[in-house]
Specification:
Shape: elongated
Structural class: alpha+beta
Largest sheet: 3 strands, antiparallel
Number of helices: 3
Distance between the termini: 28 Å
Strand order of the largest sheet: 1-2-3
Strand content: 25-35%
């Protein structure tokens, strides 16, 4: 496996999505926490969400942006032009 890490800040992802005209907001989302020997408790955690323009439902920005990056991986990196690769070799 070849591993490469791309890092985007939440602010960058929010800006990209907002620039596309999507509704993005910080909203308290219920999250369940489990501790040893006790039942789960729910706490409200501020989370960036984007509104799905088709359904109106909220989607976590992180999840949508990761999906976007996976799509971009296919088009940017898995279909390279021959000249792009050849330029990487030392002459």
């Amino acid at each position: 496996m070849i591993k490469t890490e791309l890092i985007f800040s939440t602010a960058e992802a929010v800006k990209i999505l907002r620039n596309l005209g999507l509704k993005v907001e910080l909203r308290d989302i219920p999250v369940s926490f489990y501790t040893h020997g006790s039942t789960a408790y729910v706490d409200m955690i501020p989370t960036w969400v984007v509104e799905n323009p088709h359904t109106g439902q909220s989607v976590k920005v992180e999840e949508l942006f990761n999906k976007y990056l996976q799509e971009k991986k296919r088009t940017l990196f898995l279909q390279p032009e021959k000249i792009e690769i050849f330029k990487l070799f030392e002459k």
